[in-house]
Amino acid sequence: MLRFALRRLLQMIPTIVAVSLLIFVIFSVVPGSIASSMIADGRGANDPKLVEKMNQEFGLDQPVHVRFGKYIWKLAQFDLDTSFRTRQPVITMINERMWATLKLAFAAMLVAVVVGVPLGFIAALRPGSLFDSLTMISAISGLSLPQFWLGLLFMYLFALTLGWLPSFGYGDGGLRNLILPALTLGVAPLALLARTTRAAVLEVMSADYVRTARSKGVSSFRLVQGHVLRNALVLIITTIGLQFGSMMGQAVVIEKLFSWPGMGSLLIDSVALRDIPVVQGCILVIVLWFLFINTAVDILYAIIDPRISHE
Amino acid sequence: MRLRFNLAIGALLCLIIITAAIFAPWLAQFDPIADADLMNAELPPDATFWFGTDAQGRDIFSRVLHGARVSLTVGIGSQLINTTIGLALGVSAGYFGGWWDDFVSGLTNLMLAIPSLIFALAIMAILGPGLGSLLIALGLTNWSWTCRIARSSALSLKKQGYVQAAKTLGYSDVRLMVTQIVPNMIGPILVIGTLGMGDAILAEAALSYLGLGIRPPLPSWGGMLTDARNLIVLAPWAAIFPGIAIFVTVLGLNLLGDGLRDILDPHMRTRRA
Q1: What is the mean pLDDT of residues A101-107?
Q2: What integer pLDDT is reported at residue B34 of this predicted model?
Q3: pLDDT band, very low/low/confident/very high, at A33 (cuts 50, 70, 90)
C-alpha cells in the first residue's frame, strides 16, 4: 500500500515537468516582445530604451533555451518568478489568493457530493420511477447550463431581489459570502455525480456477486451496505477527482462574476495586464492542484479497493 | 421508451437552433449590430422587441438569433478540429503501436492533466479575442477523449479478419486506416463529438464572458451576458434570454449525444438493460 502511494507520487514528477514545459512553450511563442506590448498597451508610447531596460530586467533578452533552463531551475526551488507589474514574487501573490479559491472549490464539491450522490443512489434503486426520471432530467439540465448565467440568476434572486445574501465579494470570509458562489460552482459536478452514481450503482447491482448474494437471501439493506456501496464508491470517487479539474477552470468564471478574490480573478486580471509570469504561475498552480487531488484520489481508492494496488 | 425520448427532444431542439441560425437574417426584424438606438435602450419585452432591448437599444431577439450563428460556428468548427486531431492521433497510435503509441498516450495524459477551460484561456490570452482564435483554442484542447476511444478501437479492430484481409490485398496503411478502421468506430466518435459541441458552446460563452472570446459588437451569447451583468437590476431580460438560448442549445446537444450513445454503443445499452 505504502509502495503504491509512493509510486503514484513519484509518477507526478514527469507530468509536472511536461506541464511546465508546455506552459513555458505556449507563452514563449508570443509574437513580439512582451515588454513592448505592455508599454504600448499602457501609455501608447513605445520607447525602445524602456523596452530594452524591461527586457533586461526580466531576462527576456536571453535565448529561449537559457530562459527555460532558468525557469525550471527556479521552479525546482518553488520560485515562480517576479510579476512584471507589481515586481512582487508571483508565489507570494498566488499564496495570497489560492486559499480563497480552494475554499470555494471544496465548498462547491461538498454541495455536489452531499446532494448529488444520494440523489443518484436513490434514483438507481428504483430505475424508471418518476423520481429517477425527474432526477435524470434535472441532471442533464444542470450539465447544460452556463454556470455563470446560473450564478447571475442566483445573484439577482437571492441577493438583489430577496436581499438574503450578499451579491458579491469576500466579506469577512464568512459563510454568507461563500454560499452563492459555492452553490453556483457546485451545480455541474452535482449533476454529473448524480448521473455517475446512478450508473455505477446500476452496474454493481447487475454484477454476478450481487445476484449471488441476493439468491443467498441477503437482505436488501445489507446488500446495499455491504456490496453495492463500496463497489460503486470507486467510480464515484474517480468522478469527484476528475471533476476537480473542470471545477478549477469554471472557478475562474465564477470568481469573476462574484468578485471573489481567488486565483481565478488574479489570472484574469493578469491576462488583461499581460503579466505573463503571473499567468504562467496561476495556470501551473491550478494544474498542480488538479494533479495532486487526482493522485490523492488514486491512493484513496487503492485503500477502498485493494485490488487496484496489486495490479 | 426513454431512449427515443432523449433522441427526439434533442434532435428537435438542435433543429430549432439550426433553423434559427440559418434563417437569422430573415427571422430577425432588426440588425443585431447596426440598429442601436439609445432612445430605445433597456426596454422590457413587448410586441416590437420580443425579448426587450439592451443598453444600446438593440433588439435582443435579433441578437439572440444571430448569436446562434456564432455559437454553432464555434461548436461545430472546434469539434471538427478536435475530432480530426483525436482520430488522426488515436487511430495511428493504436494501429502502429510502438514508440508512437507511447508518445501519443503520453500527450493524451498530459492534455487530460490540464483543465481544458484553463488551457483554452491560456491560448486565448496569447492569440487575443476573436472567432479565429476561439476556434483554435477550443479545437486544440478537447481531443483527448476522442483520441483515447479511437486508439482503443483501432487496437481491437486491427486484429479483425477483414482488416487483415485488406492488408493482404495490399492496402496501404493510410488507406487501411481510413477505409477499414475509422468507419467502424464512427458511432462512439459521433457521440463524443456531439457532447463536445455542447461543451465548446459553454466554453465559448464563458470565455466571451471573461472578455477573451468573441469581440463585441458581434452578437455572441456569452458576450451579451457580460453586458447584462451590469444591467441585471434595470433590465433582467437582457440576461435571461441569451442564457436560455445557451441552455436550450447545449441541452439539445447533450440529449442528442446521450440518445445517440444509447443507440450506437451496445455496451451502454446492455448496461442499461
Answers
A1: 90
A2: 67
A3: low
Handedness of CA B134, A147, A283, A177 (dihedral sign): positive
Query: Distances in Å between the alpha carbon of B171 and those of A1, B100, B174, B177?
Result: 49, 21, 8, 9
Q: Which residues pair with A82 in a beta bridge?
A: A89
List the single residue in A30, A199, A250 with the smallest CB-CB distance to B126. Answer: A30
- Please classify residue B253 by burial: count the beta carbons closer than 10 Å to its beta carbon, then call 0-12 exposed, 13-18 middle and 19+ buried: buried
- When CB atoms are compared, the residue of B106, B117, B209 closest to A249 is B117
* Chain B 205-224, residues with CB within 8 Å of chain A CB atoms: 205-206, 209-212, 222
The band of A177, judged by pLDDT with boundaries at 50, 70 and 90, is confident
C-beta atoms of B117 and A250 within 8 A:
yes
Calpha distance A126→B109 (Å, rounded): 37
Distance CA A43, CA A46 (A): 8
Question: pLDDT below 70 — which residues of chain B?
Answer: 1-3, 28, 30, 33-43, 47-50, 55, 57, 265-273
pTM of the model: 0.86
- Count CB neighbours of A177 within 10 A: 20
Residue whose C-alpha cell is 489568493: A97
